[in-house]
Design goal:
The chain is an alpha/beta fold and 463 residues long. It is built from 18 helices and 13 strands.
Length: 463
């Protein structure tokens, strides 16, 4: 691997610094902007580099394919397999990998039919080692922490980042501290932090409050910040864009739909597509649209505001992963929407619940925050923003087992309040009824079971 040939560029004022000159909060000292990692092939990365000196597209494709047959951990990783495009670690021996990435791209025929599209796929990032897309970013940024000889790493999290950080820190033998909002994350995620041995702190505040405390802490203690303001996270999170193209035999899809919380992942994927385009790996770039929950929708508000002002909100949604009112990376996400021509939509709690059940009924399953993508797609189709032939890929960010309580409550009819249920239209009401599969308790008697099976068959048709 080529050693670190990157710089950091402030996304607000454009100032360029070397990777090791960045401060502990990953913000530009002049304008408080966030950084992007840039390379000679980044747009405006280096005017001195001509196209002839850039990595060769066909050689890269061949190399990435070849590495699939290797037994080396870095080659088996779906992130480090593409390491030519993320030269961020000085000493490759410091790379910490759990063989992340290599996630499936599933066809979604029933969801496609339900929304009236010819073609719909889902890239399931929940199939990563700790069950979310965060692993792809964590392997990258935590390897940089190990490379720079940090002993402590930390993050504030709605649960998935902390699970990923705890696992990778444990693998690397680093110590880690996790801040999560008390009582507002799914238990599965909290249990992962404990299982992987993190120092886990539940703060009596929301996610945005956890970020405030952590930002203060890292300026007082030599601790490496692993929230997504750390631009190296995004270098790992751009690699699913490469995988999608490989999996589609380099045929570019039209539209990528991503959930939006702290708003880093959408920009990471956008960065991946833009870099591939610059290198000639693809001839055009798909649109990237971002979907938020109605109760945590600052980017949506920005999108529909004619003055384009970002105003933080007090966040509330059962999709706890994206319960974020003051997203750190909103400007990066906004740039991706503007540059790639996507949309931003918001979806209600009822719409999220229905979309999640429909994805589950495909045999795929995902956590609630991921289901906003399908709920949002329905809206974009209804509004005429996505048409029937558009080849669309949903990014499912987390595994269904991350928040099994949500699923159980839904199927028992206990998720939504009566007032929320009353707002559901007739057609969706019927869909919910067909999808809900609450467990029943029976006597251990085969006649009783047979009778129950017969009446179940009479009452239900295939959804
Ligand atoms: N989906 C899931 C499952 C998530 O965990 C997150 C973010 C998102 C979507 C949104 O991604 O923040 O890049 O816009 N979870 C973070 C966490 C905040 O702490 O685990 P984003």
């Amino acid at each position: 691997m080529k050693v670190a040939t990157h710089n950091l560029r402030c996304t607000e004022c454009g100032a360029v610094i070397s990777g090791d000159a960045v401060n502990s909060i990953f913000r530009c000292p002049d304008c408080n902007g966030l950084y992007d990692v840039i390379y000679p092939w980044s747009p405006n990365g280096s005017t001195a580099i001509s196209n002839d000196n850039l990595p060769n597209a066909s050689a890269l494709r061949w190399l990435w394919q070849e590495r699939r047959t290797s037994t080396l951990p870095v080659d088996q990783s779906g992130v480090w397999r593409f390491r030519d495009l993320l030269p961020i670690v000085e000493n490759p021996e410091n790379i910490v990998t759990l063989r992340e990435g290599n996630t499936p791209l599933y066809e979604m025929p029933r969801c496609a039919k339900a929304v009236g599209l010819d073609w719909l796929l889902a890239k399931h990032q929940g199939m990563n080692p700790t069950g979310s897309f965060k692993d792809t970013g964590m392997t990258a940024a935590l390897s940089v922490a190990a490379d720079r000889k940090f002993e402590w790493v930390a993050c504030a999290s709605t649960g998935n980042t902390s699970a990923a950080m705890a696992a990778y820190a444990a693998r690397a033998g680093l110590r880690c501290i996790v801040f999560i909002p008390e009582g507002k994350i799914a238990w599965g995620k909290l249990s992962q932090s404990m299982d992987y041995g993190a120092f886990t702190v539940q703060l009596k505040t929301d996610f945005d409050g956890c970020v405030r405390i952590l930002t203060d802490l890292v300026t007082r203690f030599p601790i490496y910040l692993l929230n997504s303001v750390n631009p190296y996270r995004l270098e790992g999170q751009k690699t699913p864009a490469f995988e999608i193209l490989e999996q589609l035999d380099w045929q570019v899809p039209d539209h990528i739909i991503v959930p939006g919380g702290n708003l880093a992942n959408s920009s990471a994927l956008g960065k991946g597509f833009i870099e591939m385009h610059r290198l000639g790996l693809i001839s055009r770039i798909p649109k990237v649209s971002i979907i938020q929950a109605e109760g945590a929708n600052p980017l949506y508000r920005w999108f529909i505001d004619e003055n384009r002002v970002m105003r933080p909100v007090k966040a509330d949604t059962r999709a706890t992963a994206i319960r974020i009112g003051n997203p750190a990376s909103w400007r990066k996400a906004a740039n991706v929407i503007d540059a790639l021509g996507g949309w931003c939509e918001q979806v209600s709690e009822q719409e999220i619940a229905l979309a999640k059940a429909q994805i589950g009924a495909e045999g795929i399953g995902c956590e609630p925050a991921s289901a906003v993508t399908f709920a949002g797609l329905k809206k974009l189709v209804a509004l005429g923003k996505v048409n029937r032939e558009e080849r669309t890929v949903l990014i499912l960010t987390g595994h269904t087992l991350k928040d099994s309580q949500y699923t159980i409550d839904y199927h028992r009819g206990e998720l939504l309040t009566d007032a929320e249920k009353a707002q559901i239209g007739e057609a969706d009401q019927a869909r919910h009824t067909a999808l809900r599969k609450p467990p029943i308790v029976l006597e251990a008697d085969s006649n009783v079971v047979l009778h129950a099976l017969e009446s179940h068959m009479k009452m239900t048709q295939h959804v």
